[in-house]
Amino acid sequence: MRRGRRGLTLIAALGAAMLAGLSPAMPQAGSDAGAPLPEKLRGPFIARPDVVQRLDHLDPGGDCDKSGKLVFACLIQALAKKSEQEAPSGPLSNPFNLRVAGDIAKTIAADLAELDDGGEDGDRTALNAKFFTHPLSRIELVGIVNRIDRQFIKDLVPGAEDHDRCGEISVIYRFSYSLHAGDVQSRLPVTMNVVFPAVPRDKPAGASNCREVAARWVAELARPVDRSAEQVVADLTDPASGVLAPLTGTDIERLELNMQAYRIKAGSDRTDFGSTAEYVIRVFRWDPVDKRRFVVSYLTNQIDRARLLGNPKGDANSCEPGKSKPMSKADFQAYLARPEVLSDIDNGTLNIEQKYLACRATTVSPGGPHRSKNQPFWNAPTAALSIITDAQITAAMNAALSPTRQFSFMKSADDVRTRLNELACSGCHQARAIAGFHFPGADRADTAASNAVLLPGSPHFFGDQPRRLKILQRLADGETLVRNDLAASYAARPLNKLQAELEGTELIGGWGGACLMEPTLTQSQRKWTCRAGLTCTPLFKSANAPGLGTCAPKPDGPAGDAACLSRTGRQIGDAMQCGTVTTKAYGVDRYLRTDPPRETPPDWTDRSNRKTLIPDERLPPGAPADNTYYAAHQEFFEGNDSDATPKPLLFVNKRNAQTGGFPSGMLRLSECKGLPPEATCGLLAATGFNKCLAQVAEGERKLGDCFVQRTAYSGVRACDAATPCRDDYICLRPIGYDAANGHEKFLKRQAGVAGHLDPEDFGQKEPDGAWLGRNAGKGDPRGLCIPPYFVFQFRSDGHPSPD
Asked: pTM to 2 decimals?
């Protein structure tokens, strides 16, 4: 059945606006409404902090009928018997204390205990499992994402095997806490995705099929962007037309957990990636027969490597670990070689048979696809250690090709392997992501800027919106889509055919984006080049991601002997070093800097005495007046910040001591003066910041003290949805200075740091009027790029004990 004229007009208007790149008046960054988005990057998702906060409002008495539409503790009890449902108030307002979540809390505690075993990469600081059951912890809604494009997912839901499949709706939450009478409150690096079918099982009027659901979302996207939060919520929940009205807890298909299990700080990280964080991904499904609880279940496309490689009892990632369940690697290889399966791999619509799947995934950061642990289909050095070899992939592709079957996105064995890895949970979550997350949510207005995320989604998320929107429009127009119509991009980079829609952004071949170097580029179907003025640069070289580089400014002068990065033609935020990644065994990766050359002697493995600083001769010439360039680096540097050092050398030593953790290094400016267009002003951690956090964890300081007394002004890379950060960086909310309040804010901060930082130290000068006067005096609305583990809410360590 075709849609009416009004529906067609709505779709046409929205599509025209997207293609034209219109940018209507949007709220300023940091407001209740969140960061401004270009019209072309709007898509079928809801992320305004003031809107999601209202949808997440919990009645003080725990009455779900008086609460917001999407309170987590109410939704997850809908499948339980009425006699077992509990009012989420008091300790039960933390939903993991509810009966239905009992197995979830136990599983999390067991995972954290298992992974907190010391390890060989350094001293681990695990996330405290007590947060998950503490009465002052809760789960906050951060957004709703339409994934109607995921129609290829055929995961069976007990009792609903015959239900129409029209993709999914994801309702995403973050874990948070408030301790010490509210003096310490933060989100944690934990997300919970509640997945619903796009078409409700009871098929209500107006949302009974794919076309009607898609049409509701198209209509919502066509509504004015400047509506009040109250009006938006009313529209979203309107029974007759709201996109959220049909959602009900009885439709929950699964819960997807992603949490940072532990972090190894730069000073202890023996991998030399600058820090290491490991994440656990779990899926829970409702058991309607035995436990009537949410129980551990399988992960889509995440294979059971242990059993496929010959261990019939599996490992901690396996379903039913310890139980003998042999898997045939030969059978799985034959399955992957089927022509129809290869076509699904090509389109990104693969749905691996359940019998081959694992019940847990672990990933590591930073390093993304260069880390073997993020690759379930890792290209091992021997056939015995490989899930499938390059020779087997090539033979299967050649056998599958025919006049009626061609591949659009794959040409080489490496293309196929990359596709397979990115379609798995572990590969996808570490490709063009934010510290392992693709939708952490924008922070609410009352969050301190130094701990607030500006953008709700990752570069991959925003780059994929035009594709998702086109699918939505076609479905709303009554079309029935086939697998090729649902074809997805690689996670690391949007489809090249979206160039027109993403014109004016850096999301395809722009600064910091993924690219391929020769000879990989010629051999691959991934034609990942860089835009004019940029060149594909090998920041990391590894056999795990052959030829994968990063788009960086093209040098306008000689690079010097064997230098991968030139001294000239540099921009703020650029990488400052290159290195290689070697893999001793699956999950055992090491980084070694190759440029700038390592100083020998001393021995580079002597972590206490080596000098990992970027040499001054690698800094660009001609810093702005009253300012200096500074090169942050990746590996840890111990240094010496003794007060006995005479000035001005003391200031240099203090800035360099106890530093590291900037993946591939980062060029920045010491002060917020004379900032070039690509830079903005931020407050970054200074000497003593980590010591201050340790005092917060012991209850001796307030978190706000650290953000004031132990930070310094710095000129750093600016970011927004259209101009994202490099891999392994996060876009933090701007600090909120403008022409009207800048001087007052400076004086207030100056008083706050008195006695803690020397006024003559780096980063203590007042930001200049040129920066404060940007955006017609309203201040620079863009965020700032910094490593995610410099943001309190994205690290498992440093939080106070919830005891």
From this structure: 0.93
